[in-house]
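Category: protein sequence paired with discrete backbone structure
Discipline: computational structural biology
Format: plain text, a pair of labelled lines
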Amino acid sequence: MSEILFEPFRIKVVEPIRMSSPDERERLIQEAGYNVFNLRADDVLIDLLTDSGTSAMSQEQWAALQTGDESYAGSRSFFALESIAKEIFQKPIIIPVHQGRAGEHLVFSTLVSEGDVVPSNSHFDTTAANVADNGGNPVNFQIPEAFEASCWHPFKGNMNTEKLERLLETESDKVPFVVLTITNNAGGGQPVSLANVKEVAEICRKYDKPLLIDACRFAENAYFIRKREEKYLDWSAKEIAQEVFRHASLVTFSAKKDALANVGGLVCLDDADLAEKLKNRLIVTEGFPTYGGLAGRDLAAIAQGLKEVLDENYLRYRLRTIEWMVERLVENAVPVVVPAGGHAFYLDVARFLPHLSAEELPGIAIVVELYVRGGIRAVELGHVA
């Protein structure tokens, strides 16, 4: 694919960057214990640590901040967010939280018990930690192609449904729910097909298990389905997202990703009894259920971000940017995960630095060298993550 896209937006505000030399950065990374998380952001030239909460907001989101209703209960900013969230996530009950992992904590501390097993296509690290923190065992059921970085498969994020059904056949009583992450963040930002969503949902219904969708990058996943799943070529990204969520019992969502906001998250669900339990916990840890630990202005910015994130010009540009970078790396024989994922490109460090064993932390070595040579802060998601 040779298409090159320019940004479908104008940049109105800039922030100056403090320049630094390789010698200075070598000293700084040593002082940081070779841990890029310990670096000051002001000492980074290009910060690719994460896209979570680091998005530049739109002019409409900044305007929405000015309209935020800071009422403690019944804020109109909540009802604006509730309206668009119901429309997209196809759930009647919307609970705001201060970020995605807070939503996971609410749900998992309510539903996961000691000895439980929680299957997923691939748990993100905080999701797995929330399972383990409540005495459960997080297990990942990836398809075989997901383990081959150079293998081209359009939906490497899919869940291995054979393994899922085998678990439910033998240990159903230990499984409180099933998690499906879209896109599969820990698996290379790879998408999940709508066919796989439906198959997983059907298995969950067969064994009477709730399907929880971790919707961190649902808009990217919807656009991947539109591009790669022939049946949905004529559907809009919004229509695809809505169809995906119709198959879920619960949705947890970080607004710091696909609501293009700097803070926030949601829990969306059908079950009124479970919602009451979650809201009771919410009041203890986050706040009243119409603000969930967020300022009214942030609720307003999230609502606007949800309206904008399914814009197909934006999604085309975002996914093509990563795809273009992956194409250049492949052309230069750099081993990366293919096909391109949604929010990042993933380097196969075992093939890139074959002389280093896992115990010698090749991922950390690359991350440190990127910072020293180019001032780039990337992140290792392997041996130490």
